[in-house]
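Final report, Chapter 2: Outcomes

The project's central promise was a pipeline that accepts a single protein chain and returns its three-dimensional structure in a standardized token representation, suitable for archiving and comparison. That pipeline is now operational. To close this chapter, we reproduce one record exactly as it appears in the project archive, with the input sequence first and the structure output second.
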Amino acid sequence: MIISASRRTDIPSYYSEWFFNRLKEQYVLVRNPMNMHQIGKIDLSPKVVDGIVFWTKNPVPMLNRLEELEKYNYYFQFTLTAYGPEVETGLPSKNKVIIPSFQRLSKEIGKKKVVWRYDPIFLNEKYTIDYHCRYFAVLASKLAPYTEKCTISFLDYYRNTERNMKPLHIHPLTVEQQKEIIEKFVRIAQRYNLHLDTCAESCDFGKFGVSHACCIDKERFERIGKYKLNVEKDKNQREECGCVASIDIGAYNTCRNGCLYCYANYSGMSVNNNFGKHNLESPLLFGKVNEEDKVKERNVTSLIDRQMTLFE
């Protein structure tokens, strides 16, 4: 089983102590986002957790506790863009905090365990194609020694993102603009020996040498863990998504990064209310189990292929 921690919220930044408590207890409770009264109990013991993918914009709260992950195979999806505080309202200084934390994380765990994400890309009067290219190059120069690749994507429109981003006056991206950005980013990435891929994009950028990313990546885990995994593509993701199956242990409306483009937060009020219900000792990310809730233990097993090959 692979754990996603989490597409729905920034666990390393805001819930790292809770997460380490869950590892000590070796289980976590997760509400079904489609039915909040259904709660899954997930085994977090190393014997069944084959890997953990952390999604974050700021891993600083975890940096002094990485040794507590030594029994697990893991890597980070680390989003670092060129947007300012009017877009990513809750992040600390990128030059003083975020970029140094990226570099430190890579030094401590290795560059193959830190994937840079520059996404989502959108355009307006300030954030033009030239702006993105200029600052993508700046970031690439600082991050290339500390990662193997960069994954990019273009902004997807959801009801809550359209509402939240209205003050930014976004210009819809045309296919030609996407291709222009891809072509220019590829040249920059090549300059710094970075592999470039895209996350769940419907357009084919193969002629630029850019393929679909596998953000929850079977091959990366096999390299890190030196094992073979019998895991299938995640059927719950879009067709263009290359991710393999995983269990997400986060919750929507809990991330305090304040990114206006975020699909996982519906309102700042909901985020604040849910964060106020966070308990470090609770098996749930926020709130508690109520009488009307039904808790069911998920049947999970290790997906590592234990059979010896002919050549082993």
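Archive annotation: The chain has one domain: 2-305.
This record, like all others produced under the grant, will remain available to the consortium after the project formally closes.
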